[in-house]
Design a protein that fits this description.
Pfam families: adh_short. One of its GO terms (cellular component) is membrane. The protein is of the alpha/beta class. Helix content is 48%, strand content 15%. It has one domain (18-250): Rossmann fold. α7 links the parallel β5 (159-165) and β6.
Length: 281
């Protein structure tokens, strides 16, 4: 994994991945990874590609997926790829048809695809599409995929992993209304459905990640100097959950942030507008 700074080592403790347990847990299984052409999804595909599995990789960039497929299949895993923009209803329907053609059905779903957007409300007044397209990929697409696959997952006693964000547990930040609302919507839907899935024999895991150094954060200049988890580290967390079956995975320090959000909300909501006015926003 890339070298961490001192702060990053303190914030992101190492993840010990038992590759033997992982290989045993996923042997012979069909695993869907959305958003697999870069970042966390790509790195997870490489980790799982060392096991005897059938990987189903979906993302918009089919050419990149084919490159990943060629690399992984050298290690013995089987890989199928599907290029699709899951925000597009027609492409989403074609992808669902592809999933239902898989022999034996799907065993594990890693819901990782997502879109991040940072834009002030005053710059969004004529950009309603920012909100619809963010909801389309962060909420509506994963909901439709999981509704479509629930019966298969129940038959196979499968697992669903939601790659979420710590922001769903903290006070919302200015400029991130589209992103934070969409991630909170899916997190709430997922946690609401989880007991019903569990009753049907489907394991669920919610992984609340901090800032992760992926191509998605590059447009935000401020993030380039902030502590961030590596995509490889995040992939190891996800892979470990496939044999531990933990229902929730969070950074050790998130509880402190939740308490600060709970007790500091009033102060935050008074002081933040003043700070924004001083900045001329």
């Amino acid at each position: 994994m890339p070298a961490y700074t001192l702060w990053e080592n303190m914030l992101f403790w190492p993840t010990a991945l038992d590759e033997g347990k992982l290989a045993a847990a996923v042997a012979g299984k069909t695993i869907l990874i959305t958003g697999a052409s870069s970042g966390i999804g790509e790195q997870l595909a490489y980790v799982l590609g060392r096991c005897q599995v059938h990987l189903l990789l979906v993302a918009r960039r089919e050419e990149k997926l084919r490159q990943i497929k060629a690399e992984i299949e050298r290690d013995g895993a089987r890989v199928s790829v599907f290029g699709a923009d899951l925000r597009d209803p027609a492409q989403l329907e074609a992808f669902l048809a592809f999933l239902h053609e898989q022999s034996g059905g799907i065993d594990i779903v890693v819901s990782n695809a997502g879109l991040s957007i940072r834009r002030p409300i005053m710059d969004s007044l004529e950009r309603y599409h920012d909100f619809t397209r963010t909801m389309a990929i962060n909420y509506f697409a994963p909901v439709k995929i999981l509704l479509s696959l629930t019966e298969q997952l129940a038959r196979n006693k499968g697992q669903i992993v939601n790659v979420s964000t710590i922001n769903t547990s903290l006070l919302p930040l200015p400029y991130w209304a589209a992103y934070q609302a969409s991630k909170a919507a899916f997190d709430t839907w997922f946690r609401s459905a989880a007991p019903e899935w569990s009753a049907k024999g489907i394991a669920t895991t919610s992984i609340y990640l901090p800032l992760v150094r992926t191509p998605m954060i590059l447009p935000t200049t401020a993030y380039r100097s902030m502590p961030a988890m590596s995509a490889e580290h995040a992939a190891r967390l996800i892979a470990k959950s496939l044999y531990t079956k933990r229902t929730t995975i969070r950074p050790w320090w998130l509880l402190g942030g939740e308490l600060a959000s709970l007790f500091g909300r009033g102060l935050w909501e008074r002081l933040l507008p003043r700070w924004l006015r001083k900045r001329g926003e």
